[in-house]
Amino acid sequence: MRFVPLAAAAALLCSAALTACTAGKEAGPSLGAPRPSGSASQALPAATVELWHGFSTDAEVKAFEEAIARFNQKYPQITVKATKGVQDDQITQAIRGGNAPDVAASFTTDNVAQWCRSGAFQDLTPVIAQDGIDLSVLPAVARSYTAFEGRQCTLPLLADAYGLYYNKALMKGHEPPRTLSELADLAKKLTVRDADGTIKVAGFIPSVQYYENSPSHLGPMVGAKWYNADGTSAIGSDPAWRELLTWQKELVDWYGHDKLEKFRKGLGDEWSAEHPFHKGKVAMVLDGEWRNAMIALDAKDLDYGTAPLPVADDRPELYGSGFTAGTVIGVPKGAKHPQQAWELVKYLTTDTGSLVTLSNALRNVPTTKAAMDSPELVKDANFQTFLDVFAHPKTSTLPASVNSVFNQEAFAAFVAKWERGSVKDLEAGLKDVDRQINDKLKLSGG
């Protein structure tokens, strides 16, 4: 699983009204249609199920094909035709045009709210109940990012969890920090500069423009809220955001914004072997569980460790938790073979062997408790950190919103201005972010 940058994710959204996003030809039966008695393999007629997914590398595609092969052993009469490298905009356009696949998987959770509300993806609630699936096998946070307004229109396939990676050599014997103040102090101690102040090695980069340092990933460190119960923005009213941004700005100022930006812009690509953590340019980074696999591939000799993200000094109960999201999968409106499609979705998201196969190959977190506890799951101390973060009761995600990408981009743009010193009044600026988000919400029908 790979992170989808906000700028790219924005292009995936339908800019028209939600109802227009799925307007178009009706095609095929729905999951509400009568089903064969039971869900045994012999009860379903033969069919070719079309599956679209975003995996594209050879290793990813091979892992997915192995999981599908296991499904075929159980349902030999169902042929799965998988198409790789498909993005959300392609899925939405196909649904609108009446040419939807039977099953679609997405790397991002940002479109779940739109897909659920508009009916672009079918509500799985009836078949989940009919087949007696207990969704408590999934952590509550995974259930929350796959549903919206009572409609379970997707299920989690694999998850991402975020933690702290640290270079043991650069740490110079220090233990990983547990609080924000410890993180700031250690970042300063581990930073190496030239005589003119040029940064050679950064202890920790606090900028939201650095790779995975988005507000959504940082917010759980202080228990910050995005939305009120009515869906309006809570960013301006939640003091946790002010605490986080004050801490962040103080560390940016210690580095010097211009010097930090010069250093950041000279770093290697996030998805290549030139990643600065691989190269010893940064001592500590916030990143997802997949970084373990990339280090094993591109920096085999790197001596590193992982730990939960540091948390607010006055919120010790948050330590061990973090941010999570992940791949979601469902049955689009217009699927030609919805019953067979459902069996494939159910298998990929609930079968322990399938989830373990995918996790071992892709090094993402499996989403059921049984898969996380499976003796077949390959794990070491560095990967275990992310299993524990995902399972932590206080781990959180970005709550579903029909304007998820807009809201994140509006906030991230404000924080970028804040860290470069262009915002004079933090409280007033955060309230203006609230206004932007709430105005957009009104235009979207609440």
TrEMBL record:
Keywords: Signal, Transport. Belongs to the bacterial solute-binding protein 1 family. Residues 1-20 form the signal peptide. InterPro entries: SBP. The lineage of its organism: Bacteria, Bacillati, Actinomycetota, Actinomycetes, Streptosporangiales. It comes from Nonomuraea bangladeshensis. Gene3D superfamilies: Periplasmic binding protein-like II (3.40.190.10). The keyword Transferase does not apply. This is ABC transporter substrate-binding protein. The keyword Isomerase does not apply.
